[in-house]
């Protein structure tokens, strides 16, 4: 894996760099979960609205 330019600072120890990547990976997973949840909510609202309008099945 290639490292982004801003992370290759010589001031960071290997442990600090690993911790940075671990935290960023955690934030990315949380953002993915929020995005999937939002898409699911929008889909559910659309299904319910179409069902009550008599446009489904």
Q: What is the global morphology?
A: rod-shaped
The percentage helix is 55-70%
Sketch the topology as an H/E string, one letter per element. Answer: H
Cα distance spanning the termini: 49 Å
How much of the sequence is in beta strands? Answer: under 5%
Number of domains: 1
Any idea what the radius of gyration is?
21 Å
Explain this structure to me?
This protein is mostly helical. The protein has one domain. The chain has one helix at 14-52.
Show the helix and strand layout:
Blueprint: H1 14-52
Short description, anyone?
The protein has 57 residues and is mostly helical. The protein has one helix at residues 14-52.
Pick out its properties:
57 residues, mainly alpha, 1 helix, 68% helix
């Amino acid at each position: 894996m290639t490292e982004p330019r801003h992370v290759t600072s010589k001031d960071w120890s290997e442990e600090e760099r690993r911790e940075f990547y671990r935290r960023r990976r955690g934030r990315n997973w949380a953002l993915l979960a929020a995005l999937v949840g939002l898409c699911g909510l929008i889909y559910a609202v659309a299904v319910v609205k179409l069902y009550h309008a008599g446009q489904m099945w």
